[in-house]
UniProtKB/TrEMBL annotation:
PD-(D/E)XK endonuclease-like domain residues: 1-153
Entries under Pfam families matching the protein: PDDEXK_1
Protein name in UniProt: Unannotated protein
Length: 163
């Protein structure tokens, strides 16, 4: 994994602007907090968000283009939501970099520059749904990592909440 990281780093045409950067952004009634693995800056001063992945499972190129996590990272750049202030606020894209893949070449999935209005609308739609009087819980692949299982009515750990 370390060798893959070194290969990626050496091949990147951009400079490192920051690593493990915390951000907070407010979009409508939603407040989003997170950490970005790395932000790189190109020769024109535009930022590019990098999310390193250590699992072997990759997503398709099409799914990466629509990935809401990457879009939120780009929105954090656009809204200047980082604790460490960046000298500019233009994101030119984001990328998932898979370090644990078995391929010889480092596997990446790119997301081009986002439509800020569309991303904000999606976040607001999700926030309204989650903040409603009823919120429909659905089993999905993220359930394994969910931090609110104890309050979820469809998980065994959360059954006591509704009984």
């Amino acid at each position: 994994m370390l060798e893959r990281f070194a290969r990626y780093h050496a091949a990147s045409p951009r400079e490192v602007a920051g690593v493990e950067l915390s951000f907070t952004i407010k979009v409508g009634r939603a407040e989003i907090r997170g950490n970005v693995d790395r932000i790189e800056v190109d020769s024109d001063g535009n930022f590019y968000v990098i999310d390193f992945k250590t699992g072997k499972n990759t997503i398709t190129k099409d799914k990466a283009k629509e990935n809401l996590q990457l879009a939120c990272y780009q929105l954090a750049v656009a809204l200047d939501g980082f604790e460490k202030k960046l000298s500019g606020s233009k994101s030119t894209g984001a990328e998932l970099v898979y370090l644990a893949s078995d391929s010889v070449k480092v596997t990446t999935r790119q997301q081009f520059v986002i439509d800020e209005v569309a991303v904000k609308a999606k976040i607001e739609e999700i926030a309204v749904g989650m903040g409603a009087a009823t919120f429909q819980a659905r089993i999905n692949k993220m359930c394994e990592k969910c931090v609110v299982k104890a309050a979820c009515p469809i998980q065994n750990e959360g059954r006591a909440v509704i009984e």
